[in-house]
UniProtKB/TrEMBL annotation:
InterPro entries linked: 7-CO-7-deazaguanine_synth-like, Aldolase_TIM, rSAM, rSAM_sf
Its job: Catalyzes the complex heterocyclic radical-mediated conversion of 6-carboxy-5,6,7,8-tetrahydropterin (CPH4) to 7-carboxy-7-deazaguanine (CDG), a step common to the biosynthetic pathways of all 7-deazapurine-containing compounds.
Gene from which the chain derives: queE
Organism: Marinirhabdus gelatinilytica
Reactions catalysed according to its record: 6-carboxy-5,6,7,8-tetrahydropterin + H(+) = 7-carboxy-7-carbaguanine + NH4(+)
Assembly description: Homodimer.
Name of the protein: 7-carboxy-7-deazaguanine synthase
Amino acid sequence: MKTEVQESVEKGTMLPLMEEFYTIQGEGYHKGTAAYFIRVGGCDVGCHWCDVKESWNPNIHPPTDIVSIAENASKYAKTIVITGGEPLTWDMGPLTSLLKEKGMDTHIETSGAYKLSGTWDWVCLSPKKMKLPTPEVYAAANELKVIIYNNDDFRFAEEQAAKVSNDCKLYLQPEWSKRDKVIPKIVDYVMQHPKWVVSLQTHKYLNIP
């Protein structure tokens, strides 16, 4: 029999909270802007180069009432970024409803591997080959951010770009551990294919969370 906590997590009224923090958005379209990050545990996409593998197992992160999550977030910033892990593992509807009631702008960073839930002002889609996005996430994406680890990722990037809307912003971002090798390739590629923009993890260069 499911516990009350398990049922609350399934309903999205509690979420396995890994961490929450106020910082500067380091990547993509909104880089350089202040934002409050909510990192939710749970991900089965399995990127071997993931830099937050401790987020994968939701059972090690405490189920937390979304009312307290929303209250904490509203103290710091107007822009709230929900990330993971893979946040769409869970129902994001209840949390984003609370955040919108408080006048917050809601952003999500997702692989798109699960059905889109929640109300979003900005959807950053970072697709992965191991588990491709669902059709509704492609349609909703405001920003496509493809991580470049090897040469085949450029092919994958073009394949993914063909599935998002014409208004979607297109970014190529070097995988951090391979940045010295792939940045020159990304620069050359963007110069030859200017619909793309280079995204860097500027928060790592700034030495902030």
